[in-house]
Design a protein that fits this description.
Elements: H1 4-7, H2 13-18, H3 21-41, H4 47-59, H5 64-74, H6 78-88, H7 91-96, H8 103-139, E1 144-149, E2 152-158, H9 159-184, H10 203-214
Antiparallel strand pairs: 1-2
Helix pairs in contact: 3-4, 3-8, 3-10, 5-6, 8-9
Amino acid sequence: MSGLLRSRPATTQAMLAAFSDAATLRHALAFEAELARAEAAEGLIGPESAEAIAALCARIVIDPAALAEETTLAGTLAIPLVARLRAALPKAAAAVLHKGATSQDVADSVLACQIRAASALLDSDLARTATALAALAQRHAATPAIGRTLLQDALPIGLGLRLAQWQAGIVEAAERLRHEVETGATLQFGGAAGSRAGLDGKGAAVSARLAAALD
C-alpha cells in the first residue's frame, strides 16, 4: 500500500520523495560506502575492501518491500541491509563492512539526511512566501483593514501592517528551522555502546570524514 491518498494531499511530490523508500535506501547505502572509505583513509581497513564495498553500494538493487519484511523481524533496516551486502561481498570486504558502527547509527544518520533534504525544500518555500508577503505589505501599506482585539472589531489598521507581521513570523520561523536542522540533524556514529570501540582511537577522525562525505 502506498498511502498516497492520505499523504499526497498534505504535502508535495518533492517532500514525499525525500522520505521515500528509495531515498531511505540511497542514504543507508551511502552511509556504508562512505564509512568504508573513511575507515580506509584512516588505515583501519584496506582500500581494496573499501572500494569493493562502495562499488557494491552503488550498483546493488534491493526491493524495498522485501527489505521491509525482513526489517519487521530485525527491528531496524540496517540488520537485513548489512546482511545482504555481506552476502554479496568478497570475504575480506564482508569482514570489515560496517566496522565500528551499529544499526542505530545507520537509521539515525539516514533520518538526519532526510531531514536536511526536507529542510531545504521548506526553506525554499518559506523564502518565496516571505518575499511575496513583503511585496504585498508594501503594496497595501495604505489599504485600510479592520483591527481586531479579543476577536472583535477594533481601530482600523493598514492591511500592509498585518501582512508585514505575517512575513516577520515566517522569517523568524525559517531562521529557527535552519538553526535547528544545522545543529540537530547531524551524523550519528557511536558504535554498539556509544564509545566508538574497535576503531583504534580514530573514531573522531572517521566520524569527521563520514559527516563531511554525507554532508
